[in-house]
Amino acid sequence: MFHRMRRLRKSPAILDIMSETKLHTDNLIFPLFVRSGSGPKRAIKSMPGQFQITVEDLKAELNELKQLKIKAVMPFGIPAFKDDSGSEVIQSDSLMVDVIKRIKDLAPEMTVIPDLCLCDYTTHGHCGPIDAHNGRTQNDKTLSLLQKAAVYFAEAGADMLAPSGMMDGAVQAVRSALDETGFSEIAIMHHTAKYASSFFGPFREALECGLESGDRKSHQMHPGNTREALSELSSDIEEGVDIVMVKPATLYLDIIKLYSQQCSLPVAAYHVSGEYAMLHAAAQNGWMDLQKCTLEALTSIKRAGAQLIITYSAKDAARFLSE
């Protein structure tokens, strides 16, 4: 006698009751691209529905997010001034400091998780100062700059920090800087397994941080590696990380699952710009249903083990889930 599995699929109501994985707005973190200056929002061509905004736009943006019950944001800065070392981000009055303060002033209940990296602020687009001899990012010099920025972000009111440059020792460096300045309760969400992916392309346009030369393969992971991801996980745990992250998300569901099985820490995943752009491009051409495919993609990320999902689809998903 065979078992009739279809008994538990015979109606939409039963399907909902039996769903093992539930996507909720509490799981979603919305990235914000905030540029210096004033003026109208600027559409990001490769990311339909996404914009560069200014500090002046934050009030309307936060009101919309609150209405959609999205409780966390990850701001990125697009400064007016850049140099070879990204020095703008280590100023007490930097753009990101202003952004964090403004968000916490307008929406104190909003969880603010600023990106902590220098690629937004360097003229060459790399994640830290470049070694003139080999053209590679200088790891330890970058760490010292991240420490300074981390303290300023914490003083501004950040709830947690998200170092994203994949520098060796970043968690330990940021953790020690926070602890030594009285910010031991600020959590670190680290890009533990950030792959050297080709799906970051639209993000480069959004943040205006394309590379002048070279690539990021010296510090981001090879797409074919799994054991290395476990080494990165072990290292981050030893250094005191609070939340581990996998980036990209839907292309690396196996790594998300691996992390969720190998450690007891919360796992986050970044549904990146290329993943978002593909969904919208296909939908605009009438090839896929945006609502169904967006929810399926995000549900797959949660099913794999991610408790938190950073996604440009957060607003879309919130609207779809409320229907």
Secondary-structure map with pairings?
Blueprint: H1 12-18, E1 28-35, E2 42-43, E3 51-54, H2 58-67, E4 72-78, H3 95-106, E5 111-112, E6 115-116, H4 139-156, E7 160-163, H5 170-180, E8 187-194, H6 201-207, H7 227-239, E9 243-247, H8 253-262, E10 267-271, H9 273-284, H10 290-304, E11 308-311, H11 314-322
List keywords for this structure.
323 residues, alpha/beta, single chain, eleven-stranded mixed sheet, globular, TIM Barrel, 38% helix
Question: Care to describe what's here?
Answer:
- With 323 residues, this protein is of the alpha/beta class.
- The chain has a single domain, classed as Alpha-Beta Barrel (TIM Barrel).
- The protein is 38% helix and 16% strand.
- The chain contains eleven helices and eleven strands.
- It has helices at 12-18, 58-67, 95-106, 139-156, 170-180, 201-207, 227-239, 253-262, 273-284, 290-304, 314-322, and strands spanning 28-35, 42-43, 51-54, 72-78, 111-112, 115-116, 160-163, 187-194, 243-247, 267-271, 308-311.
- Strands 1, 2, 3, 4, 5, 6, 7, 8, 9, 10 and 11 form an eleven-stranded mixed beta sheet that branches.
- Strand 9 (243-247), helix 8 (253-262) and strand 10 form a beta-alpha-beta unit.
- Helix 10 (290-304) crosses helix 11 (314-322).
